[in-house]
Amino acid sequence: MTVTAILPVPESFARRREAVFAPVAGQSTLVRIVRTLASVGDVVVCTAGSLVDEVRNALAALELLPVRVVAADAPGERKHCIDAGLRALADGPRGHVLLHDLAWPLVAPATLERVAAELRAGAVAVLPICPVTDSIKAVDARGVVTATVDRAQLRTVQYPRGFDAALLAQVISGTAADACDEVEAVLSGDVPVTLVEGDNDAMSVELPADAGYLAAIIADRGDRPDR
Q1: What are the pLDDT digits (tens) for 121-130?
Q2: Measured between alpha carbons, how far is residue 122 from residues 65, 81, 193, 196, 223 in Å?
Q3: Is there a contact between 35 and 65 (Cβ–Cβ < 8 Å)?
Q4: What one-character DSSP code corresponds to residue 161?
Q5: What is the CATH number for 119?
Q6: N or C: which end of the chain has fewer CB within 10 A?
Q7: What whole-number distance in Å separates Cα of residue 188 and Cα of residue 171?
């Protein structure tokens, strides 16, 4: 059974194209993510109609990689993009998918392999996680600190997230287009979730504001074999 990566490019990025196409450390976020996702299988980039041509042009240099670009139904929000990606799967509902997010430009190959391996071993939902290391405080309505939260049981959830294709199609169909959260939908049901080790460098970034910080992390990571 195959594993296919799905990368949504929703309509919201039409208002901030630089977050998708502007180079950071020599590569755009779109190209950087697709190159890494392609290391485990086919990649489907599912994009809002207004961005289809730009996405195809940006990925033209990757013609030797197994990458397809498909257009989402209007209005092209994240839910519609994921729906389009699921329809484009070669194995249909029998396959597995890695769902990624453009706001997470750093994808550690080791994390990618761990998620894909669990899917191939039979998992239906796989989340990469990292322990919370910051001090967490509870604050009341006045902004006064009331307690220190025990972080021992807290974890951050990262991308890419792995799913049985049929399960993802089911949970996405039940979410609102403007509030599409596949993790909350899975956790609210009686679905076993497999957790794997994430990557301490992975993070959600806001481009172009975080471009300098992101470039510094990319430079520090280099070509280390553990990445």
Answers
A1: 999 999 999 9
A2: 26, 25, 11, 14, 31
A3: yes
A4: E
A5: 3.90.550.10
A6: N
A7: 10
148 phi and psi, to 5 degrees? -100, 125
Whether the Cβ atoms of residue 10 and residue 73 lie closer than 8 Å to each other? no
For 11-50, strand residue ranges (E) read 23-24, 27-28, 43-47
Cis before 128? omega within 30: no
Burial of 219 (0-12, 13-18, 19+ CB in 10 A): exposed
Q: For the segment 67-97, what is each residue's pLDDT rounded down to a tens digit?
A: 999 999 999 999 999 999 999 986 666 789 9
How many domains does one find in the chain?
1
What type of residue is 174?
Answer: G
For 8, the token pair is 């949504």
Which domain, by its residues, includes 70?
A: 3-223
pLDDT tens digits for range 169-199:
988 886 766 667 788 888 877 889 999 999 9
pLDDT given at position 61: 84
The length of the chain is 227
